[in-house]
Specification:
mainly alpha, 77% helix
């Protein structure tokens, strides 16, 4: 065999190897529920450890509520995975309709303000949990607003450009 036949074989081998590779999106769709499950299991354990080492009733309650919510979310994740309804967000927290968005923003605003009141009146882990609740509510509101306006702009007939 001469050198030209080896050179001709290289692109064919590279193309065959590239065709066998899994796309990044498929890998992420497989890894995302596991990653979310590990985070929720960690939140459950952290809640139980916080409650077990609590010095006051507020810290104990925050620990148990955190563990309970994380367990419910973990169960929801497992059920949706078995039902094969996995998507980009494992917990489906993005609103599609404007009415749902307004209601979700209002509820999350009330919960976030409640977290600030909790942080203002508590000490220790409960204070941190109040601030964390407020920040998480802000992040979920921002993600929902971005998702809603991205979807709305993608459905525009002019390709999503802003009006002049």
């Amino acid at each position: 065999m001469d050198d030209t036949s080896h050179a001709a074989m290289r692109p064919a081998k590279t193309a065959a190897r590239t065709a066998r590779r899994a796309p990044i999106r498929a890998i992420w769709n497989w890894v995302a529920p596991w990653f979310t499950g590990v985070l929720l299991a960690g939140a459950t354990l952290l809640g139980f450890f916080t409650a077990s080492g609590a010095e006051g009733p507020d810290t104990y309650a925050i620990g148990l509520v955190t563990a309970g919510l994380a367990l419910v979310a973990l169960g929801w994740l497992v059920k949706s995975t078995f039902d094969e309804r996995t998507g980009r967000w494992p917990l489906k927290i993005l609103a599609e309709r404007p009415e749902s968005l307004v209601l979700l923003v209002a509820l999350l605003t009330a919960i976030g303000i409640g977290g600030l009141f909790l942080a203002a009146d508590a000490h220790g882990a409960a204070k941190t949990a109040g601030y964390a609740l407020f920040v998480v509510c802000l992040l979920v509101i921002a993600a929902n607003l971005k998702h809603y306006y991205d979807e709305r702009d993608s459905r525009r007939p002019d390709g999503g450009s802003a009006p002049d």
